[in-house]
Amino acid sequence: MRDFFHGWRRKTGVVTLVMALAFMGGWLRSLMVQDSFSLPYALLPTLRLVSLEQSLVGLLIEDPTSMLMLQAWESSPPTDQPFYDHPGIEWRLKLFGFGIGDELFDPANGGHVSLWVIPYWSIVITLTLFSAYLLLGNPSSPHPKAAVPTVTVEGP
Fold first, then answer.
1. Domain assignment present for 128
2. What is the pLDDT of residues 61-73, one digit of tens each?
3. C-beta pairs of 93-101 under 8 Å, 24+ apart in sequence
4. How many domains are contained in the chain?
5. In this model, does residue 112 exceed pLDDT 70?
6. Does any domain span residue 156?
7. pTM of whole model > 0.90?
8. How far is CA 28 from CA 23, 49, 52, in A?
């Protein structure tokens, strides 16, 4: 079993498989709970990562009029209205669960939110396939064997 984990390919394959399982857990949790993580400081712009409706959503919040003091981690039940149908969001791209959009919540003062949506399925499938390639592919030998010279012996 120790020989299986020699080399960087197998170790990286196991790490990517664990990452795929962690994202799969986030995917399943996003069906029941809406989680969000942000920096707890009043920085402009504020970066926030939200897990909801089988997607990861990155938010870049620019609000020059208020000092946003967001909690670092929040969990709440999911909302009744689907995220993609929110009336205030102007989508520039909305395809196969991916999305890029903007929301103006205070146009007079420059209040603006940029959104990037990445579905969990794209992360989990990519990490799983990459892990399978690394784990199941032919491991490259760290020290290639030197070619043995051929000696022919002629008889009497």
1. yes
2. 877 666 555 567 7
3. 97/54, 97/55, 97/121, 97/122, 98/122
4. 1
5. yes
6. no
7. no
8. 9, 17, 10
